[in-house]
Amino acid sequence: MIINAMSETECRALLSRASMGRLGCSLNDQPYVLPIHVACESDYIYVLSTFGQKIQWMRANPKVCVEIDETGANSEWASVVVSGQYEELKEPQYSEERSHARKLLEKRTQWWQTAFAERQLKAGDSLISPVFFRIHIDSVTGLRATANGKNQS
After folding, report:
1. Residue 104 and residue 148: Cα distance in Å, rounded?
2. Is 152 a domain residue?
3. Is there a contact between 141 and 7 (Cβ–Cβ < 8 Å)?
4. How many domains does the chain have?
5. Are strands 30-37 and 20-27 parallel, antiparallel or unpaired?
6. What is the CA radius of gyration of the chain?
7. Beta carbons of 122 and 115 less than 8 angstroms apart
8. Can you say whether the dihedral through the CA atoms of 116, 140, 6, 104 is positive or negative?
9. 114 within domain boundaries
10. Can you give the pLDDT at residue 70?
11. Which of 76, 85, 68, 66 minimizes the C-alpha distance to 136?
């Protein structure tokens, strides 16, 4: 197996295909990592959530990271890490951006499920308000493992 750095173009191509990733946020030197459904476009990663710990923490500390990976046969994989800034898409000032985020996310299978399943477990049948947010991509890096040194672009 050979591991090589991915170019920014390769990283962004992987991001554009992604539907699931892991969000990392932190508060008071305590990290928190959880799965999220994503839709990536241009310099943003769009996410649907509900209010909870991650939203509280990101409001207090908007510096976040997202890790997205793909796996293949024979120990082949690619992993991209994005560093960026949390930006909540609140109504009414971000109505257009919320609508755009929803349209992008709706193209993903079960894009809403992770956000609402946990909250419904905790809140029962109470009304659950969606929180749309995006992460402005500040930097992106990636690694790719290939079998027998073959190049995958």
Report:
1. 37
2. no
3. no
4. 1
5. antiparallel
6. 16
7. no
8. positive
9. yes
10. 94
11. 85
Partnered with residue 66 across adjacent β-strands are 23, 82
Q: What is the pLDDT of residues 123-135, one digit of tens each?
A: 555 556 789 999 9
**Domain assignment of residue 82, given as a range:** 2-142
Q: At 147, phi and psi to the nearest 5?
A: -80, 140
pLDDT digits 0-9 by tens, 74-97: 889 999 999 999 999 998 999 999
Closest CA to 118 of 105, 131, 106: 131
Q: In terms of Cα–Cα distance, which of 19, 43, 48, 24 is closest to 34? A: 24
pLDDT digits (tens, 9 = 90+) for 26-56: 999 999 999 999 999 999 999 998 888 999 9
Measured distance CA(20)–CA(148) in Å, rounded: 28
The dihedrals phi and psi of 99, each to the nearest 5 degrees, come to -60, -45
- Residue 70 in domain: yes
Q: Residue 36 sits in a domain of what CATH number?
A: 2.30.110.10
Helix (H) or strand (E) holding 133: strand 130-146
C-alpha neighbours within 13 Å on the C-beta side of residue 140: 23
- Return d(Cα 133, Cα 106) in angstroms, integer: 15
The reply to whether 73 falls in a domain is: yes
